[in-house]
Amino acid sequence: MALPELFESLAEYLSLSTISLATASPDCRPHAAPVYFVADDDLRLYYFSAESSRHAQNTAVSQAAAGAIYPQCYDWQEIRGLQLEGAVHVVPPGVQWERAWELYRVKFPFVNDLRQVVERNTLYVFAPGWLRLIDNRQGFGYTQEWMIP
Predict the structure, then answer these.
(1) Tell me, what's the pLDDT at 1?
(2) pLDDT tens, 88-134?
(3) Helices marked H in 15-145 — which ranges?
(4) Which of 11, 23, 53, 69 is the most exposed place for a label (fewest CB within 10 A)?
């Protein structure tokens, strides 16, 4: 499946506000943090965070990360979401930063008045290399997986 088609098929999840981002410290202590995110057409997920946060410090040492994106539900038959594995990198100021900022402004209009506050943080990109969709609405334990080039 081509990336644009995959992006469309996952739109329900990519439109959600938050990814639970999992990282590990240099001494292998796990850490998970919810962060607001936006996704571009190449399935790269962007988020802002303080460089002093644990997940930022962890990805400064090892870019490996995992994530989960899922809507809240209260019935096992409604459990669905994405699991992701990939790498996190800092996005420096420039064209990619501005494109991600525009996506962020569209998805989260409240940031339009907060650019100076947001700019005090760092923009990161989580580039998944693997995705798994879980969707119990399709049947208990239904999964589908993709590798992202």
Answers:
(1) 59
(2) 999 999 999 999 999 999 999 999 888 788 878 999 999 999 999 99
(3) 54-61, 95-107, 115-118
(4) 11
Cβ-based burial of 111 (10 A; exposed 0-12, middle 13-18, buried ≥19) = middle
What is the CA angle 69-72-30, rounded to 5?
Answer: 45
Cα within 13 Å of Cα(7), Cβ side = 11
- Mean confidence (pLDDT) of the chain: 93
pTM (global) more than 0.90: yes
Q: Which two tokens stand for residue 96?
A: 């990619």
Task: Give yes or no for a contact between 22 and 32, defined as CB atoms under 8 angstroms apart.
Answer: yes
Decide if 100 contacts 91 (C-beta within 8 A).
Answer: yes
Quick check: helix, strand or coil at residue 103? helix
The domain containing residue 131 runs over which residues?
3-147
Domain with residue 39: its CATH number is 2.30.110.10
Handedness of CA 110, 41, 72, 126 (dihedral sign): negative
First to last CA, the chain: 12
Q: Is the pLDDT of residue 10 over 80?
A: yes
